[in-house]
Write a structure and sequence with these properties.
Elements (H helix, E strand, L loop, with lengths): L2 E9 L3 H11 L3 E8 L6 E7 L4 E7 L5 H9 L2 E9 L2 H10 L4 E8 L5 E5 L9 E5 L5
Parallel strand pairs: 1-4, 5-8
Antiparallel strand pairs: 1-5, 2-3, 3-4, 6-7, 7-8
Keywords: Metal-binding
GO molecular function, one term: methylmalonyl-CoA epimerase activity
Protein name: Methylmalonyl-CoA epimerase
């Protein structure tokens, strides 16, 4: 299985407050902006593409969203690293065979058509890792 860094998710309080840094200083371009309001997600997202990487700025839409809880517990900053895999189902099976645990309730398809699931941070020594694929791009 190939694992390629897909994006870095960064928890922020207000996207509009930090977006100028990513656009003007890092010379990124705003690729997309949307709101995911499904229960357990509840986040505004800005996708910024720099020359060689993608950054997702994540702003909570309410005080109970996972991003709001993350900011309250850990502060603003890197929320997760996402790795694109060839086939999400196969990657999950292979990882489980190695004893990796997942946050099963996070398995979903996002607004951009990306299938994703988060690995339980217990299996990664505390780092939240997303595995994802893009089934419509195969």
């Amino acid at each position: 299985m190939n694992y390629v860094l897909d994006h870095v998710g960064i928890a922020v309080r207000k996207i509009d407050d930090v977006l100028p840094f990513y656009l003007n200083v890092l010379k990124g371009s705003l690729e997309d902006r949307y709101t995911a309001d499904a229960p357990g997600v509840e986040v505004h997202v800005a996708i910024v593409r720099t020359e060689d990487k993608v950054i997702e700025l994540l702003e909570p839409t309410n005080k109970n969203s996972p991003i709001a809880r993350f900011i309250k517990q850990r502060g603003k900053g890197v929320h997760h690293l996402a790795y694109q895999v060839d086939d999400l189902e196969k990657a999950i099976v292979e990882a489980k065979e190695l004893g990796i645990r997942f946050l099963d309730d996070t398995l979903r398809i996002n607004a951009r058509g990306r299938r994703l699931i988060y690995i339980n941070p217990v299996s990664t020594d505390g780092t939240l890792i997303e595995l994802c694929d893009y089934p419509n791009n195969r």
